[in-house]
Amino acid sequence: MGAPTTPTSTTRRPARRRSALLGLPLAGVLALTACGGGDALSGGGSGGDASEGSGGGGAVTVGGATFTEMAVMEAMYAALLEDAGYDVTVTATDERATYADALLRGEVDVLPEYAASMADFLAGEPISTADIEGTMAAFEPVAEEQGLVLGEPAEASSDNAFYVTQEYSDAEGVTTLTQFGEAQSGPVEMAAGQECLDATQQPFCAAILESAYGITVGGVTGDGFGSITGKQKVADGQVPIGISGTTDATLADLGLVLLEDDQEVQPANNLVPVVNAESAEADPQLLETLNQLAPVLTTEDLADLNAQVDQERLLPEDVARDYLVEKGLVEG
To answer: Sorted alphabetically, which Gene3D superfamilies does this protein's record hold (predicted)?
Structure first.
């Protein structure tokens, strides 16, 4: 099985004891009652410790990446699960390969993930499409084969996007990736992590820039996706371009601007819960609880939540809980 992953950050969160049926749609309540055969809070927890059909209330580990948007999503998952009576640990690492491996091993029960990015990563090749229906249809059999179960995708989507300084864009008249590619005379260095150079991990980073736009990425700075250190290097002129997401709320304040994906090559990166199959089978309520977020969370909401953390300097945990309370998904 190998050694456990070493997280960048781990937070143990005590359970909030409350009826796990509150906030679920009626169909979900009926399904839980039928499966559980009694009190929805009776029985064990997730991670394969609970018997088939048991309710919530056990231990759950939420994993994922460390950048702002994922920290907010992890906090929302934790708050939803705590409100349903689970004892939640949040653990985050920098690289998808690390936290995906932890999920596959069962060291992590659930991840908030980007549908297209995770589908392509697990498949080892691009299988995602520009629409979420096509992406999920391609993703589901790959996930099942690897012992994972997918939740309902939210409307909220954060697609890969590439940024330059506003000064460069204005001076050179470069507003699209096609124009940026045409302006380059050789390879460029980009503010991005090492995985950007690996097409099996990030087919829509360096690989797609070269194939669709003729932009050759000759090297990366090693800064994480959407990181403030990477943005600062672009803002300071150390490198000409960086990668972030379309919901990044900090770019304008740093004098940065997104370039248009004018060839429309970036796939549908809606947020979706990805759950270890043993955890999901041991406790059906786990996925039911997380699926409450799907019809509520929008792309605009996600951008606003990011801004509260990055610009107003609020904690992801506080921002996430306030949002869920406002939407009626957890108790205040």
So the answer is: Osmoprotection protein (prox), domain 2, Periplasmic binding protein-like II
Give the mean pLDDT of 166-182: 98
Beta bridge partners of 92: 9
State the CATH number of the domain containing residue 42: 3.40.190.10
Distance CA 263, CA 254 (A): 26
Domain span holding position 190? 160-259
Of the candidates 98, 97, 156, the one whose C-alpha atom is nearest the C-alpha of residue 122 is 97
Residue 122 pLDDT: 95
User: By the 8 A CB rule, do 278 and 106 touch?
Assistant: yes
CB 5 within 8 Å of CB 101: yes
Query: Both 148 and 173 in a single domain?
Result: no
Q: Which pLDDT band, with edges at 50, 70 and 90, does 57 fall under?
A: confident
Tokens for 126, please give them.
């691009």
Nearest C-alpha neighbor of 91 from the set 4, 10, 6, 15: 10
- 21: exposed, middle or buried (C-beta count within 10 Å: 0-12, 13-18, 19+)? buried
